[in-house]
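Hi support team,

I'm filing this because I wasn't sure whether my run with iron/sulfur cluster finished correctly. The job status page said complete, but I'd like someone to confirm that the output block is well-formed before I use it downstream. Pasting the exact inputs I used:
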Amino acid sequence: MRAPLVDRFGRVADDLRVSLTDRCNFRCTYCMPAEGLAWLPRSDLLTYEEIERLVGVFLDLGVRTVRLTGGEPLLRRGVEALVSMLAARGVPDLSMTTNGLLLAEKAEALAAAGLRRINVSVDSLLRHRFAEMTRRDALERVLDGLRAAERAGLAPIKLNCVVVRGTNEDEVVDFARFARATGYQVRFIEFMPLDAEEGWSRDRVVPSEEVLAAIGRVYPLVPVDHGPEPARVFCFADGAPGGVGVIASVSEPFCGDCNRIRITADGQFRTCLFALEETDLRRLLRAGADDDQIAGAVREAVARKWAGHRINEADFVRPARSMSMIGG
Ligand code: 5AD
Ligand code: SF4
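And here is everything the job wrote out:
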């Protein structure tokens, strides 16, 4: 076991997101254009063996949580094989964020392979609006996927809902009602300037406080202790099942408590979603670096991690890559 990854602000990086692909079978308007993006050539993607090797080094560096993301991680062929490789490595908390389109087919195999929990993106409960936001008429399939995940025992099920002003903010109470009926936790995420089309503007961000107030007027909420997560989590005061969470990345940045680090699908290490710098772990791997060299490169990058994103500052610069290329 190596010393943990501590940065110069005393934050400990123990939550790793690993993107498996930049490709996606959705085209969410707040993420990518209708025609998609120029996908990475397959030879640029880390292989499962390379991912397993890196995750081993990160576990040694004190990482506890590994979340598989994308793009859409279920598009990676045989992804359940990677899940069992990582589960066998003893990842204490192994989870995935998916858009749910392929979940109905995959949930059981994923759970059997050792996946514990799942987060599914659902931005609308209305068929037409869902189709507008994701550019795919797929709400029913995603809802089937959620039920399959439940049957497979992937619990707790969390929904991610990106709230965009003028698009879906009128549905937050309906989402809370859905949470109460299903027992899911619905997490409302503020729209961040990471969309490839650069359509983000401050007036399209719905502050989390507004979401909580709207829900609280109908279903009073009680805060729940949520540990080191950036989400603020609430349960229903009347004891109904399920809950809601908010991720106020823009209006109330949680950078001061950030414990996250990321690896892109092409093996670049990033210490922040908004980082302007990447560390090329794939090059190290493919040049035959040993674990000490990889751990050393990671430690140096974490030491350089900045205090936080500068979305609310005049000098904010968008990272060159957008959300699906970084990994959500
Ligand atoms: N702002 C906020 N959230 C986003 N996501 C994708 N793009 C954005 C954006 N620009 C979300 C996805 C997914 C999670 C990984 O990130 O909906 O749930
Ligand atoms: Fe795909 Fe997720 Fe981007 Fe939507 S937000 S297009 S599901 S990567």
